[in-house]
Design a protein that fits this description.
- This protein is mostly helical and about 170 residues long.
- It has one domain.
- It contains four helices and no strands.
- The radius of gyration is 20 Å and the shape is elongated.
Length: about 170
C-alpha cells in the first residue's frame, strides 16, 4: 500500500509519542519507587514527586493512547468479532467509529476549553511545590486530535474493505 505524506507524518508523530510514552513509563517507575522508599523507609516524604507522577501519568495516557491505537493494542471485547470475516470486521469497526468520533469530539471541545481557561489563569498545582498545570491540560486535546486523525484514517480503510475496494 502506497502511503501519502500525511499518513507518513501521522505515523512519525505517533511513533514519537510512543517513544515519549516509553520514557514516561521509566520516569513513573523510577520516581514511584523513589517516593515509596523516601516515604516508608526514610520517613521523609517528597513534596514534589507525587504531583509530578500524577502529571506524568496523564501525559503517559496522552502519549501512549495514539501509539496503542495505531498498533491495535487496545483491549477489545472479542466474543464474536474474531470469527468475523475481514469485511464484517470492517463494517463493525466503521459503525463503532461513529461513537469514537462523538467521544473524541467532546474530548477535544471540552479539553480545549479547560486548557484555554488554565492558560488564561496560569493555573498551578495547589501544593507546596507549585507546578504549572496548563501544559498538561493543553496536551489532552492535542493528543485527542492525533487519535481522531488515526480513527479517521482507519475509518476510510474500513470503508474500502466493507465496500470491497481493498482486502
Amino acid at each position: 500500500m502506497k502511503k501519502n505524506i500525511f499518513s507518513k507524518a501521522l505515523d512519525g508523530l505517533t511513533e514519537g509519542m510512543g517513544m515519549i510514552g516509553g520514557v514516561l513509563i521509566l520516569y513513573c517507575m523510577a520516581f514511584g519507587l523513589t517516593d515509596v522508599f523516601l516515604r516508608y523507609v526514610m520517613n521523609a516524604p517528597s513534596l514534589w514527586i507525587g504531583t509530578t507522577l500524577q502529571a506524568a501519568l496523564v501525559l503517559l495516557a496522552c502519549m501512549a493512547g495514539p501509539y496503542a491505537y495505531k498498533y491495535g493494542d487496545f483491549i477489545k471485547l472479542d466474543l464474536f468479532y474474531h470469527k468475523f470475516s475481514p469485511r464484517k470486521k470492517a463494517i463493525c469497526d466503521a459503525i463503532t467509529a461513529i461513537f469514537t468520533f462523538m467521544f473524541l469530539g467532546v474530548l477535544i471541545w471540552k479539553g480545549s476549553q479547560a486548557a484555554l481557561i488554565s492558560i488564561k489563569l496560569n493555573q498551578m498545582t495547589p501544593t507546596a511545590v507549585r507546578i504549572p498545570i496548563y501544559p498538561i491540560k493543553s496536551i489532552i486535546p492535542l493528543s485527542a486530535i492525533v487519535v481522531l486523525l488515526l480513527v479517521i484514517r482507519q475509518f476510510f480503510r474500513d470503508l474500502k474493505v466493507a465496500f470491497g475496494k481493498q482486502a
